[in-house]
């Protein structure tokens, strides 16, 4: 389901990109298929999502308490 959501997000970005105004729907679909795994890999490498290989799903653990934020166990600086 996450992969589908990312693909829809990417497709929306591509459709609204003026540089691709002349692209056919098939070309947009092809670019979407190419970019979706790369986008997910980027989110993984940045620690934004954590893959669960057993279920082929992703998790996000976010908390904020006492002026401190954590995303997947990593501290997130807050402008205080």
Automatic annotation (TrEMBL):
Identification of the protein by name: DUF945 family protein
- The source's superkingdom equals Bacteria
């Amino acid at each position: 389901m996450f992969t589908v959501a990312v693909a829809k997000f990417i497709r929306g970005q591509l459709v609204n990109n003026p540089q691709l105004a002349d692209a056919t729907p098939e070309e947009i679909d092809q670019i979407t298929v190419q970019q979706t795994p790369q986008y997910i890999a980027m989110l993984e490498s940045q620690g934004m999502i954590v893959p669960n290989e057993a279920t082929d799903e992703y998790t996000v653990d976010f908390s904020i308490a006492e002026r401190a934020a954590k995303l997947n166990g990593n501290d997130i600086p807050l402008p205080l």
